Amino acid sequence: MVETTPAAPSRSRDLRKESVEEVLNRVEAGLGVVLDREAVARKRRSIGARSDRGTWVRIETRPLVKIVAQGQAANGMEAANLLDGIAKPAWYAALSWHDAQGEAVWRADEVELVTDAPLQRRAMREVSLSDAWWATLNASLDALSRQHTTRIATPDTETITQSLVTREIERAFPGRADTTITEEWVPAHADLNWANLTWPVCWIIDWEDHGMAPRGLDAANLWASSLGIPGLPERVWQERRGDLETRPGKLMALFYCAKIVNDSSVPGELREITTHEADALIADLQP
Fold first, then answer.
1. What is the pLDDT of residues 43-68, one digit of tens each?
2. What is the pLDDT of residue 182?
3. Model confidence at 225, in pLDDT bands (50, 70, 90)?
4. Which of 26, 89, 98, 226 could form a disulfide with 233 if both were Cys (CB 3.0 to 4.6 A apart)?
5. Residues 98 and 156 both lie in one domain
6. Which of 277, 171, 284, 266 is nearest to 227 (CA)?
7. Positive or negative torsion for Cα 166, 168, 169, 172
């Protein structure tokens, strides 16, 4: 179990809604590449584009206060290059700088270009994942759990701690479960949702949050990301039952259920499904 000081609140930003031309110019000059400006992929805190070198460049901004509180550099993708036996893009180079005005650190990582498309929750009703796809995912997650890193996982950019797990679960389901985690932690991707997996070939992308975490964190995140999609949560549970049927695995599943329930933007139907699953997990966790 690992404890760190929680990060102080920081100004929220959304890269989908602000100009990033100056950032792209700086990255092109620093890495010596030309980015495809016509096909920039934008997320809330990251942007990405194909380069003229046939590589992919991912650019992220992270509040400086979070990096300081986490006690580790914003080099998760670079550090992940040391992990073996995992279906992940190779890392080539990086550029980072301190944005004093925005009180943030920008980082650009140039990695192997993966041409298989990222999956999205909304597409999972139509996509058929092959047995080979699941075998690659399982082999990768099993290999990851056998390795070691000094980094601590930061799901949703927040350092995973006992206090964070307890806070989220207690907020959603007060007084209903013992949230204490005593088992040894293992390395995790820490952002394993469908958007960070590709198809038809399985690649695991975006490793900036990886680090040590309670066993089952990744499997629980993928399972929770599947709730409401017929048959998919059951398949995830079946494939990753070795993680999810342990006590920490069930706690991680309850943790992600709590995060859904605590999110006021979640639709009512998904909230009901999640609450039902949480009730079952709480019953299983009783001594």
1. 888 999 999 999 999 999 988 888 77
2. 94
3. very high
4. 226
5. no
6. 277
7. positive
Three-class HEC string of 72-141: CCCCHHHHHCCCCCCCCCCEEEEEEEEECCCCEEEEEEEEECCCCEECCHHHCCCCCCCHHHHHHHHHHH
DSSP secondary structure letters along 42-57: E-SSEEEEEBTTSEEE
Same domain, 96 and 124: no
Predicted structure pTM score: 0.90
Of 85, 112, 139, the one marking the end of a domain is 112
CATH number, domain of 223, equals 3.90.1200
| Mean pLDDT estimate for the chain | 92
Q: Which two tokens stand for residue 201?
A: 């070939």
Structural domain total, the chain: 2
6 by DSSP, 3-state: which? coil
90 phi and psi angles, rounded to 5 deg: -70, 145
Task: Please measure the distance between the N-terminal and C-terminal CA atoms of the chain and give it in whole angstroms.
Answer: 21
- The reply to whether 103 and 160 lie within a common domain is no
